[in-house]
Structure formats: C-alpha cells, structure tokens
Amino acid sequence: MKQVVLVGIGGFVGSVFRFVVVEWFGRWLIGFPAGTLVVNVTGSFVLGFLVSLNATPFAVPTEYRLFFGTGLLGAFTTFSAFSQESLGLASDGRWHAFAGNLFGSVAMGIAACIAGATLARVAAR
C-alpha cells in the first residue's frame, strides 16, 4: 500500500508540474507545442539520470524510484500528448512544425536520456 501512495503522490505532483510547464511555455511560443517538447526532453534527461544511478554505488532506494520515476516523471512526461499534438499539426498541414516536434521530442529526448545517464556515471566516479 505504501508503494501505491508514493506513486500516487508523485503522479499528483508530476501532473501539476506538467500543467504549469506546458501553460507557461504555451504563453511564449504560440502555435507550437513547446511545453510538451520541454516536458519530454527534461523528463527523459531526469529519468535517464535516475535509472543510470542504479548501476552505481549511488543507487536510488526503491521508494524514491517509485515516487520520482514511476509517479512524478510518469505523470510529467506524456507521449500521448505528443502524439495528439503531432497529429493535429499534420492534420493542419503544418509539416515543418510536425517535423520539428517529432525530431525534438524523439531525437532530443533520447539524446537527453543519454546525457543524463552519462552525467550519472561521471557523478558516480
């Protein structure tokens, strides 16, 4: 039961934080889902960092992994929103924005995950 509560609280925090980030970026970059892009890249970096710490002497305790990884980051990063927004851009014929969103979320997300994992390995030395 404790694990479910940790994931639930983390999910609450992550979803609220996601809402705030998407709203803030939506005010500055109208017409492009920059908030979702920022959320996906940032979340990928942090999750890559946390997961990679488990292979070091600085392993993250299960409770923290559940709260941060499964709960907070699970609610913070949503590729379902990415998919829906990408479909909307394609449906509107906004192919440059579609390609930018696709490249930014996928390629930059993977690159950020690699960067987070690398930082974790360097920090563990």
Mean pLDDT value: 90
- Helix % is over 70%
Number of helices: 5
Topology as a string of helices (H) and strands (E): HHHHH
How many discrete structural domains? 1
Main β-sheet description:
none
Strand content: under 5%
Distance between the termini: 36 Å
| Number of separate strands | 0
Shape category:
globular
State Rg. Answer: 16 Å
Structural class: mainly alpha
Give the low-pLDDT segments: none
Task: Please sum up the structure shown.
With about 120 residues, this protein is mostly helical. It has five helices and no strands. Helix 1 runs antiparallel to helix 2 (about 35-55), helix 2 (about 35-55) runs antiparallel to helix 3 and helix 4 runs antiparallel to helix 5 (about 95-125).
What's the layout of helices and strands?
Blueprint: H1 2-28, H2 34-53, H3 62-76, H4 79-91, H5 95-123
Helix pairs in contact: 1-2, 1-3, 2-3, 2-5, 4-5
